[in-house]
Specification:
alpha/beta; 5-stranded mixed beta sheet; 3 helices; 5 strands
């Protein structure tokens, strides 16, 4: 129940923040597979403006449970981020921040209008 309420709060904040500036194009939600996919789906249901969803697979863990320090893209976005679109990265759990930092640099190079992170747990 607490998680549901928090996701609803985040969705309402995104709706409020992006209602006017995103226009008819809406926003692009991006999640890192696999962990954040369910969080992003729940979040998308709570956002009351148009949103497109896409996924990336990124790893800094290799075969272990401790970060290796090397980030790799295992699966890139299926769609193209058009310059000027507002992008929100949905992250369920922020651990070391290494993967997210890499992802944000990568996405920023694609020239979105804005790049924001919605994190459930830190």
């Amino acid at each position: 129940e607490q998680i549901h309420d928090r996701v609803a709060e985040i969705g309402a904040a995104i709706t409020e923040d992006f209602r006017e500036k995103a226009g008819d194009d809406g926003i692009i939600l991006i999640s890192v597979l696999r962990g954040a996919a369910i969080f992003m789906a729940d979040l998308a249901r709570e956002i009351k403006i148009p949103c497109e969803m896409d996924y990336m697979a990124i790893s800094s863990y290799g075969n272990g449970v401790k970060s290796s320090g090397v980030v790799r893209i295992l699966k890139d976005l299926s769609s193209h981020i058009e310059e000027g679109r507002h992008v929100i990265v949905a992250e369920d759990i922020l651990d070391s921040g290494l993967t997210l930092t890499y992802l944000l640099k990568n996405l920023a190079s694609r020239n979105p209008a804005s790049l924001t992170v919605a994190t459930l747990l830190r």
